[in-house]
Design a protein that fits this description.
Layout: H1 10-31, H2 38-53, H3 60-70, H4 72-97, H5 102-131, H6 136-149, H7 151-171, H8 178-194, H9 203-206
Length: 216
C-alpha cells in the first residue's frame, strides 16, 4: 500500500513530468511574447528540457533563465535572421504559386525546397546554440550540416514538430504543454546526434567534478 503513495513510483514521476512540462511551456510562451525573443526562448526551452525535464538536473526555471540570458544576443540575432528569411521566402513562394506557367512551376519547386531546408535548419539551430559555443555564421553552417547528414532523424523530428504544430492550430488548448513535450520528444533524437560531436574527456576533465549530464 505504501508503494502506491511513494513519490518515486512511475505514476507520480509521470505526473511530475506533466506538471513540469506545463510549467516550462508557460515560461516559454511568456518569454517569446515579443516574437523577436523567440530565438533565445527556443534555445532556453531546449536546454531546460534536455537537462531538467528529461534528466532531472537542476530546477527548470533556473536552467531556463540561465540559458535564456547566456544565449540572448546570439539567439536574438539567429531568430531574426530566420524570421526574415522565412518572410522573404513566403513572399517569393506566393508569387511563384500565382505564376501559371513553366517558370512558375520551377520557381515554386525551388522555393518549396528552400522552405524545407530552412525548416530543417530551424529545428537544429537553437539546440546547437544551447550546447555549443560558436559564431553565428558557423552556427547556421553546423545546423545545415547536421540536418543533412542525419536526414532520417531530421525528417522524424520535422514530423514531430509538425504534429504538435497542427495539434495547437486545431485545438489551441495543447499550447500549454505542447512546447515542452514536443521538445522532449525531439531531444531523444537530437541528443543522440549531439553525442557524435562531443570531444572525448581528458583525465583532467574527468576528475574536475563537472556534471556532464549531456553525455548520459
Amino acid at each position: 500500500m505504501s508503494s502506491i503513495f511513494n513519490l518515486d513510483n512511475p505514476f507520480f514521476s509521470g505526473l511530475n513530468k506533466i506538471v513540469d512540462a506545463f510549467f516550462l511551456s508557460i515560461i516559454f510562451l511568456i518569454t517569446c511574447i515579443p516574437i523577436i525573443t523567440i530565438g533565445p526562448a527556443l534555445t532556453a526551452l531546449y536546454y531546460a528540457t534536455a537537462k531538467s525535464l528529461r534528466r532531472d538536473r537542476g530546477y527548470i526555471s533556473k536552467e531556463y533563465f540561465k540559458a535564456f540570458k547566456l544565449n540572448f544576443l546570439q539567439g536574438l540575432v539567429s531568430g531574426l535572421i530566420l524570421i526574415a528569411a522565412s518572410s522573404i521566402l513566403a513572399i517569393d513562394w506566393r508569387y511563384a504559386k500565382n505564376l501559371h506557367n513553366t517558370t512558375g512551376v520551377i520557381l515554386f519547386s525551388i522555393f518549396t525546397a528552400l522552405f524545407i531546408v530552412l525548416f530543417f535548419i530551424t529545428i537544429y539551430i537553437f539546440p546547437v546554440l544551447s550546447r555549443f559555443k560558436t559564431k553565428t555564421l558557423h552556427l547556421f553552417k553546423t545546423a545545415f550540416f547536421m540536418s543533412m547528414r542525419h536526414l532520417p532523424s531530421t525528417i522524424l523530428m520535422a514530423i514531430i514538430v509538425i504534429f504538435f504544430g497542427l495539434l495547437v492550430y486545431l485545438f489551441r488548448i495543447p499550447i500549454v504543454f505542447a512546447p515542452a513535450l514536443c521538445t522532449l520528444l525531439v531531444s531523444f533524437l537530437m541528443e543522440r546526434i549531439f553525442k557524435k560531436y562531443m570531444p572525448e574527456k581528458s583525465e583532467e576533465e574527468e576528475s574536475n567534478g563537472v556534471d556532464e549530464w549531456y553525455m548520459e
